[in-house]
Design goal:
This protein has five helices and 24 strands. The protein has 373 residues and is an alpha+beta fold. Strands 3-2-1-24 form a four-stranded antiparallel beta sheet, with no helix packed on it. Strands 4-5-6-7 form a four-stranded antiparallel beta sheet, covered by helices on one side.
Length: 373
């Protein structure tokens, strides 16, 4: 069995239990081009002269601004979606020849393309948080818009609908966000139907099979924390922030005219570490509780204990409405001829058609699992 997946923005393939990272030709070319441009401009914005003139600029390694967000099987290989700087794109890749030239489908400036799913020449994609459908030439139709955000598109196994998760945003300046529900989009009929919704839970990553069963991951809904800082906190922190501002100004003045910082442990050109992306924080948030979750899952008798909480479960809904909890602590999952393949955050595991579990490979935070031919 050959499985491809994403982990922290990079592509990997697991072939009969052996894991290797897949190179990304487009990301490498983008990073090399941008870094070369920055190198050619660096002489204008570095050194004592630039410090004196106040024109110092620091260029971040372009490879740090590239991220792969989605993968989907397609014909003899797979498609992947990525963001390179401010550019969203979809490309075609052959997993059997990872260094072969990659095929181009779409590139758009100031676009963000995340999850994708391919079927019969069409690509369901999440572009700028809304559902769009591409053809293999890169032409597309935007299907959804408004105060909502869609994710995890999946072409229905028994018709031409697109299953996806969606959340709604409050209108009028409120920061409220609804729990994630599951809807089916019929682009031919121009219909959107809500399939499953729960007041206390997020329902994500929907799929179905040809027998009429629906699958999704359920996890407790967490309302977003308000961004507005209480007035009393702003008042109490005002003196501290004022002192920090003064010290920061004096330090910058010293670097500009004295050639060295006031703080001796700070090197010229150092900058504060930027805030990490929500994706990184999400994974790190799970990692911080990984040991605790794994212990609780082991104590509950799980054969392959997950590092994710037991409250995140893979659900199966039968045509008659009955529900089965297939597994707890599931990060992602997909179907194969041999059963259900899922990730528990540290391993890729097969739940065989006989119900037995088998560890396929060690794989840290394997997400966006796909089965390749």
């Amino acid at each position: 069995m050959k499985i491809a997946y994403l982990s922290k923005g990079a592509m990997y393939v697991c072939n009969d239990g052996k894991v290797s990272q897949l190179p990304c030709e487009r990301a490498d070319k983008y990073a090399d081009t941008v870094n070369e441009i920055n190198k050619n401009k660096a002489w204008k914005h570095s050194g004592r002269g630039a410090e004196f003139m106040g024109t110092v600029e620091h260029y971040e390694d372009a490879s740090k601004t590239t991220n792969i967000f989605g993968m989907t099987p397609a014909n003899d290989g797979f498609l992947y979606s990525a963001v390179f700087g401010g550019m969203g794109a979809i490309y075609r890749k052959n997993a059997d020849e990872p260094k072969a030239p990659e095929g181009h489908i779409y590139t758009g400036m100031n676009r963000r393309i995340s999850n994708i799913c391919y079927k019969n020449g069409k690509i369901a994609a999440i572009m700028d948080d809304h559902l769009a459908v591409f053809d293999e030439r890169g032409d597309y139709d935007e299907i959804t818009d408004g105060p909502s955000a869609e994710s995890y598109p999946f072409w229905s196994a028994d018709d031409n609908r697109i299953l996806c998760s969606t959340v709604g945003y409050a209108i009028g300046g409120d920061s409220g966000v609804s729990p994630s529900s599951i809807m089916a989009v019929d682009t031919d009929a121009g219909r959107m139907d809500e399939l499953f919704a729960e007041e206390e839970n997020d329902l994500i990553k929907p799929k179905n099979d040809s027998e009429g069963n629906y699958y999704f991951i359920r996890q407790p809904y967490r309302a977003p924390k308000p961004q507005k800082e209480p007035i009393w906190k702003s008042v109490l922190l005002f003196p501290v922030r004022l002192i920090k501002a003064i010290v920061g100004f004096l330090n910058a003045f010293s670097v500009l005219f004295g050639g060295e910082p006031l703080r001796k442990n700070q090197q010229r050109g150092d900058t504060k570490t930027k805030n990490k992306s929500p994706r990184e924080l999400y994974f790190e948030g799970r990692l911080l509780e990984a040991e605790k979750n794994e212990k609780e899952n082991a104590e509950s008798g799980d054969k392959n204990p997950s590092i994710l909480p037991r409250s995140r479960v893979l659900v199966k809904k039968a045509p008659d409405g009955s529900e089965t909890i297939i597994k707890k602590g599931v990060l992602d999952y997909t179907f194969s001829d041999e059963g259900i393949v899922y990730s528990n955050g540290k391993e890729i595991i097969l739940i065989g058609n006989d119900g037995e579990e088998k560890v396929i490979a060690k794989a840290s935070f394997a997400d966006n699992l796909i089965i390749l031919k």
